[in-house]
Amino acid sequence: MVEPEQRLLMLIDKEAGQGRLVGALAGREGWRTLSVDDSETAIATLGTRQGMQLSAIILDQAVPGDRACELIAELKARRPALPILMLTTSTSPQLAVEAMRAGATDYLVKPVAPERLMQALRNATTREAPRDELIPLSEKMPANLDFDAMVGTAPPFRDALAKAAKAARGHGHVLIEGESGTGKEMLVRAMHAASPRAKTAFRSINVTGVPASSLESVLFGHEKGAFAGAFDQQVGAFQHCDGGTLVLDEIDRLPIDVQDRLIHLLGTGSVKPLGAQYGFKVDVRVISASNLPLADLVASGHFRQELLDLISRTSIELPPLRKRDRDIGALTRYFLHQIGQQPGLRPLGVTSDAMRLLGSFDWPGNVRQLQAVLFRAAVFCEGDALTEDDFPQLREIVGEIEPVARGPMRDSAGVMLYSSDGNLRPLEEIEADVIRLAIGHYRGRMTEVARRLGIGRSTLYRKLSDLGIDNAA
Length: 473
Prior knowledge:
Its main location: cytoplasm. InterPro entries: AAA+_ATPase (IPR003593), AAA_lid_NorR (IPR058031), CheY-like_superfamily (IPR011006), Homeodomain-like_sf (IPR009057), HTH_Fis (IPR002197), P-loop_NTPase (IPR027417), Sig_transdc_resp-reg_receiver (IPR001789), Sigma_54_int (IPR002078). This is DNA-binding transcriptional regulator NtrC. The protein is an alpha/beta fold. It has helices at residues 2-6, 16-27, 39-46, 68-78, 93-102, 114-124, 155-168, 184-193, 215-220, 237-240, 256-268, 294-299, 305-311, 328-340, 352-360, 366-380, 392-398, 427-441, 446-453, 457-467; strands at 8-12, 32-36, 54-60, 84-88, 106-109, 174-177, 202-206, 245-249, 270-271, 280-281, 285-290, 314-317, 349-350, 385-386.
């Protein structure tokens, strides 16, 4: 392919090691990297023959420091169409806002996973219709570790939360499946915060963020001299989390040989570091997260059935946003409230036309993408409420929206009262939604659910059975 070979990336960075890493990652996809180590050289380079060939810029904030936003603005003034990605160690939303207003295309918090960095470059340099506002930003807003912070009333979603709330109180391994961006990480942290192990060791490992050659050492540890380069002993994640919780994110990407070792560990409760002559018992709760249905990977031979059986004592599936599109309104209001609390931003409303536009998109990036889109729109909004005009790229993708007849109506709690044909829904369906809502709201505490609904526990369980509601949910 000719086009990738012609893409030139300018890296503004004074760390030689990081420069080599970024250059190597970019080189895998055909990028050439031009490195400069100060702001003046970067600006001067734009006017050179090489500078005119640039397809993107990565700027490490450590180079210009407090003047990073000034440098971004200067670069954008000289080359308005050139995507600029900023690397930083800061998780400050204020800096993210300022960088974006200055012209940054994306804002990446170090250490950045290789795939995250490459995805940011792919998104920034796509040749398709402009989709800047759809880029998954890495801004870091304070995360609520509470089931109540997970907004939505769609039955599959509330069932998943109720099941998670009940499972949180136990010690069994849990598997959470769902597309990227559906809220798996937030659900994991809510479960840990509500669990008996809340104050014990907790560690989360993204399988794709660890080099394959290092994965076994990271998980199981190794002894000094176990292999070339093992100059010191390393304590593995399972030993570190003894008595606590270990999260294995994107477990669907776990290599088969590591799966086999994990099967042995979970089956025996004993971990043996690489190069060790002994093993030792550990008590670790494993919460696994997968973007893909593991049953499908078992069928194709890419995942061990025995491992699936061990990690899925409780199995939870988070639905994609397109299957809970009626939650978009509540999620939008929730995110705008959260965004409005961040330094440099303010509370905003949202017009009905903007809501129709948001509701017309299928959100392949799910809830995370919706949050990113709202964040970007809020940064640049000059009015008191977001309108269609604040989502120009989204409107271009969706196209013209046909006027729609009155849709389902809800009460203030978010329970639908009317069906799409304008008639009232059957009482049984409304009652089922109310019970699901209560189970999720009170985190599966069935005594509290029954008390708040004004019924006895035996009556509640009878209704669960009659209405076909999963009370392990």
